[in-house]
Amino acid sequence: MRAFRALTVTAAACAAIGLSASFATANPPQGGGNGPSNVTVNPYSVHQGASMQVSAAGCGHGGTVWSHGNFPQTNLSAGSIGFATVRIFNHASPGHHTLSVKCHDNSLVATHRFTILAGNGAQGGIGGSFGPSTAETAIGAGLIGAAALGAGVHVMRRRRPVGSRA
Q: Which end of the chain has fewer CB atoms at under 10 Å, N or C?
């Protein structure tokens, strides 16, 4: 009886998978080679010389991203959603600009707006990667030496004579 029940469940699962596979091939997922769509940029406003992430759906075999005078042509990765990281030129003119995305397997071009901000952004994330300079090290060693000398003089002046009692 247990074997019959297991066989029935297995047959039902195989039938469900078989029927869903034929349905999936009849209705391909959106963005599967119909040209670029849902183009996004992160961040929308980017400083000169900074990097920006671009993503687009619909380029299953990859594509290219470009914006004349703002960053070089860059490859978009393959997949249901393609990604590219672009670096804005240091000399790019501030203001509102448009980037273009074209798939390798399609002639359609999608565009998206973004903003370039004047000047360089903050160099965050460096943390403790920069050590002290030689001048800072010399000043620190001098301060430690002066503190040790001052503490020694203080202890010597506050010392009680050996024979006296308080």
A: C
- For residue 41, pLDDT over 80 is answered with yes
The one-letter amino acid at 79:
G
pTM: 0.54
Reading the block at residue 56, the tokens are: 């687009």
Average pLDDT for the chain: 80
pLDDT for 122-137, tens place per residue? 666 655 566 778 888 8
